[in-house]
User: Which sequence fits this backbone?
């Protein structure tokens, strides 16, 4: 019996030792794994740091980190391109705003107008948000700058557009009111009634045309391709545009001729393209002396382009005015435009129609010689000849 108890005790001790040995083995193994992971963790931290650095450098937003000593700790190429930092020196207003944020701990926003670095370029409008880098550490601030130039330009264009529309509509509306008043007062004079009635009709037509063109222009503003494009013969487009302008040209004593090869084609919206070409022809007729010809032609100057040209022998356009003729309501000769009922929107419509078709409109002109307006459109892709 004693021998049996001794054996059992020995077995129990051995078992306890085995359990303790297994626990110790697990502890040693865990220590070795932890030791092995130290370099891996350090490498991972280093990799994450590199990734974050690349993200900051490649960000389209300008990012700058300043410390309490006004030193630039971090900046990316976008921040330098926007003018937030130049040769490790922060922009003056950026620095002043950063110091206020360091003092107050409150985020702030500053709008900057950065002058261009090269002649002829436009100012850059930058919106810069400045905030403490962390709540716990008040030694650093981070700046996020975005280029708002296009938004500012669009808002300015919108204000100008509203102001121009208000001004331009005021003239025919005022004229209508005066003519109606004169018509009422002249009801006993058939000749005066006829004269005022004709003027009233003319002003009403002008107002109707302006409203129609404003609606058309508003639809074209987005520079998006028309939804239903079809392959069209250029000859048919020119033929319809010339037909639309034929009567005004004959009334003005302007010979109107055209020529186009039958095989030239473009992809586009027929109504919009006809309107654009008709507007160019109408402008050429309105600004040409009597008996001077207006010609319309087309060509394929290169395999990827179809060009429609309208040429006149009219008064021509100065170089300064050529930079503005595609603006809404701009007129080279305001007196002549009023006499012909022009709205100042025709060339703006041409510009947007061309842009919406993936093309452009160009002008060559010389005062006293005449002008040539060219609509350039992408040629259709030919089978076996991808563009």
Assistant:
């Amino acid at each position: 019996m004693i021998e049996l108890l001794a054996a059992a005790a020995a077995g129990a001790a051995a078992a306890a030792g085995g359990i303790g040995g297994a626990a110790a083995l697990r502890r040693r193994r865990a220590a070795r794994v932890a030791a092995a992971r130290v370099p891996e963790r350090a490498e991972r931290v280093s990799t994450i740091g590199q990734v974050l650095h690349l993200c900051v450098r490649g960000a389209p937003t300008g990012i700058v980190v300043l410390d309490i000593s006004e030193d630039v700790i971090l900046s990316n190429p976008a921040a330098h391109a926007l003018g937030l930092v130049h040769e490790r020196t922060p922009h003056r207003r950026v620095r002043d705003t950063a110091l206020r944020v360091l003092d107050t701990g409150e985020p702030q926003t500053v709008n900057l107008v950065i002058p261009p670095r090269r002649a002829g370029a436009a100012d850059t409008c930058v919106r810069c948000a400045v905030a403490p880098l962390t709540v716990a550490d008040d030694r650093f601030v981070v700046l996020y700058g975005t280029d708002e130039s296009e938004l500012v330009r669009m808002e300015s264009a919108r204000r100008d557009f509203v102001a121009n529309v208000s001004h331009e509509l005021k003239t025919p509306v005022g004229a209508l009111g005066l003519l109606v008043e004169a018509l009422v007062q002249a009801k006993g004079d058939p000749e005066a009634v006829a004269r005022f009635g004709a003027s009233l009709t003319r002003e009403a037509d002008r107002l109707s045309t302006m409203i129609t063109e404003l609606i058309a222009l508003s639809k074209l503003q987005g520079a998006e391709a028309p939804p239903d494009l079809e392959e069209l013969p250029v000859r048919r487009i020119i033929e319809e545009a010339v037909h639309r302008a034929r009567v005004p040209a004959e009334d003005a004593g302007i010979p109107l001729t055209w020529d186009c090869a039958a095989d030239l084609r473009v992809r586009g919206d027929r109504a919009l393209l006809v309107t654009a070409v008709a507007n160019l022809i109408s402008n050429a007729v309105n600004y040409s002396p009597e008996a001077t010809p207006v010609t319309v032609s087309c060509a394929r100057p290169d395999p990827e382009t179809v060009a429609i040209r309208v040429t006149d022998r009219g008064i021509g356009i100065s170089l300064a005015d050529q930079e503005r003729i595609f603006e809404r309501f701009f007129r080279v000769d305001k007196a002549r435009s009023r006499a012909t009922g022009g709205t100042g929107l025709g060339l703006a419509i041409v510009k947007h129609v061309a842009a919406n078709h993936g093309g452009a409109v160009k002008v060559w002109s010389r005062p006293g010689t005449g002008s040539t307006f060219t609509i350039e459109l992408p040629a259709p892709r030919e089978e076996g000849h991808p563009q």
Observations:
- The first helix runs from residue 2 to 58.
